Automatic annotation (TrEMBL):
Organism name: Seonamhaeicola maritimus
Function text: Specifically methylates the pseudouridine at position 1915 (m3Psi1915) in 23S rRNA.
Protein's UniProt keywords contain Chloroplast: no
Positions bound to S-adenosyl-L-methionine: L73, G105, L124, S125, K126, M127, T128, F129
Homology family: Belongs to the RNA methyltransferase RlmH family.
Protein name per Swiss-Prot or TrEMBL: Ribosomal RNA large subunit methyltransferase H
Amino acid sequence: MTIKLIAIGKTDNNELQALINNYTKRLGFYIKFSFEIIPDLKKVKNLSEEQQKQKEGELILSKTSNSDSLILLDENGKQFNSVEFSTYLQKHMNSGIKQLVFVIGGPYGFSEDVYRRANGKISLSKMTFSHQMVRLFFIEQLYRGFTILKNEPYHHR
């Protein structure tokens, strides 16, 4: 299985990007992982929130295939602790799917088309985080999940 993370817009904070790169590299020791950025939409001032979600949704769906398991990072999704999340990852690996795709949406969330296509939703917290911080938190949790599955000490340092 491979894991892909899709996010809208680049990370413009160099310190955050360095940490994201660090955990992405660490994650590569456990699983094939890719992080794909969809560039911010241009001329959004002329678009309603709904139109912006629709355009972003089309771009998100163009980056996935029908055989992918698509999981949205959404405030209304299921919450896990780190051990539960590692079990969630293991269940997906055992299911035989080829690619597990997680998506961080744009500032207004996801279009209805993306919600209909999704196989699930997870939430990192009831709190609101910047989209750039969510990238780091999620990639770190993926890494933590794999260290838990391998019984490595990272989780309890």
